[in-house]
TrEMBL record:
InterPro entries with a match to the protein in the record: WG_beta_rep
Stated name of the protein: WG repeat protein
Pfam family, one: WG_beta_rep
Domain of life: Bacteria
Amino acid sequence: MKGIKRIILLLVLFLIGIIFVIAKDQDVGIEQVVVEGNYKTDDLAYFADNRLPVYKGNQYGYIDRKGELVIKPNYSLGLPFNEGIAAVRKNRSGNWGYIDVNGEIVVPLEYDNYGNRFLDGVLLRKNDVFHYYNLKNQKVEKEFVGYEDMMVVDEHLIAVKVDHQWGIMDYDEAVIIPTIYEEVGVFNEGMVPVKLNGSWGFVNETGEAIIDFEYDTVSSFNNKGAVVSQNGQYGIIDKAGDYIAPLEYDHIGYFNEDIARVYDGELYYLDEEGNSLNMEREYSRLDDFFEGFASVTQEGQYGYINRSGDRVIPNIYKEAYPFADGLAVVRDLEDKLKIINPENKVLLELNEAYYYSGYSEGVFTFVTVEDRELSLLVVVDKDDTTIAPYTRSPYFLHKEHRTFQ
């Protein structure tokens, strides 16, 4: 043995299709699960609580990571689970409610929307009344009357709309921020973006204006900085409203892992201090950072760079998706999908033609090319798999097309 990094133990169990790979000083098990039943899944669907929403025809149900149907398709729409419950819709005209992981109804299917998680329950709308449904005792604990709209903006605060204006209150309907704003965002880092007289600024949890109302668009704060724009130019401000990066960029993306993509005639990255990564600026497309790596495109081919801007995997792929749990899906120039590690070692190659659908809770999902039916699950057998999902919803900045998503 010359070190575990050079050893790959390949054990194929034909009855259950499990492949074990040893890499990076730890055992990584990979199980291929063929999904029967001709189900489809939405682009933004993902595994949570070992349940993935799938549909056949116009009816939604749920499968588990073994590919087995665990909740029958009885709903016109089913959303991913969140902390043990999932929003489902009885029919196309409405009638939302919630089920648990066993398919038991925990919130009656009688609401106009699926609402928001709030405190120990869910905040939902029924006709013109908002109900706080407590999941612990499974009953409506409070009704909110006289509001045009409501949404949860913090774990204990609700944004409310009265006479076309937004404000923020708590569960007891005590006013935190008066209803004088055209729009509100969600709290982060103790501040919430609000729009007044056509411009955005920030207020704190007492309603005090912290950053003046002078921006066309703003993001929520992410640790140190928030992205703002004015007259088509983008910059980054800190919590005092001072500029980390001046208003001089054509576009700045949202921060992910404390790094944002920018465009000012060239594509590159900025950190939250406003410093640019030391990197080549010849890429035609940049993706967000995940687990310290970002896929980048050069001359139509994909590779990866690290947070120092170094190219760690060459641009040899037709497609390259974000890393999750130390693994990434790529498509080579011969159209074969592979799962690689950060050393570009191929841990699994798929022989059939698939589209990559997404990753969450240790499961890669793949659909067929022709009809986009859910066909294959690749299950990662390791501790502490990523819960936050990656779906095919794109996040990139493209140089030629000035496209930001």
